[in-house]
Amino acid sequence: MNENQSIKIENLVKKFGKGESEVTVIDGANFTLNKGEFVALVAPSGAGKTTLLMMLGCVLEPTSGKIEIGDEVVYDNKWKVKDDRELRRKKIGFIFQAHYLIPFLNIEENVSLLPYQNGESKKVVKPRVKELLDYLDMSDKLHNMPSELSGGQNQRIAIARALANEPDIILADEPTAALDRHRAISVVKMLKKITREQNVTIIMVTHDDRLLPFCDKVLTIKDKKIQIEEKSNEDII
Length: 237
Ligand SMILES: Nc1ncnc2c1ncn2[C@@H]1O[C@H](COP(=O)(O)OP(=O)(O)O)[C@@H](O)[C@H]1O
Ligand SMILES: [Mg+2]
Prior knowledge:
Bound molecules: adenosine-5'-diphosphate, magnesium ion
Oligomer: single chain
CATH architecture: 3-Layer(aba) Sandwich
Structural class: alpha/beta
Shape: globular
Radius of gyration: 18 Å
């Protein structure tokens, strides 16, 4: 196995429904991504982007095929992990279009929630969350409530929350869709910096072609298969 590999899928198939109402969304997809790559996932609405992301995140069960995350086979025609929730908590971070911060917890509490759920101690979590918010230029908001922050700031906090578990991969479903162009670019630059500095692989669903030059690879879903395009180095900002 390539030790730089972070996600590998083979012959992945996803069908919904049964009998007459059966729909095939992904029909035998194959690709490999490496650690530290910033990957865009671009396809028309209804093509299966969220479906793919949720399978990679071990939230949605594929119909057949194989998924490896890091050096672990998590799915091979059936789930191979004993505890998919634990895998999700430890290896995978999620960022959504809406930030889904908990409104009655302050920023520090929102970002700390998952590590505490993982059983980590206050002594470890507190400095890590401080450092993360520092890293994202948000440390002065530690004690603010989500309602006191702008959309772009809340999305940075959602990024901090996704990173708080030190995941190997981050799955981001249209993280910039609710932001104006300026803020979208600032969030995307932040995501790119994270891939480089933390060796995290990020897959970002986006409809915005202007964000593609920031990415290393572009995945598209065509005819229910995944196509992968490597961006040339000159494209990378
Ligand atoms: N739980 C489900 N049951 C039946 N069909 C579904 C389900 N989830 C998604 N689909 C179908 O799968 C296709 C892909 O959906 P989705 O992954 O949400 O697309 P995208 O994120 O690219 O817009 C759509 O045709 C959608 O109707
Ligand atoms: Mg979607």
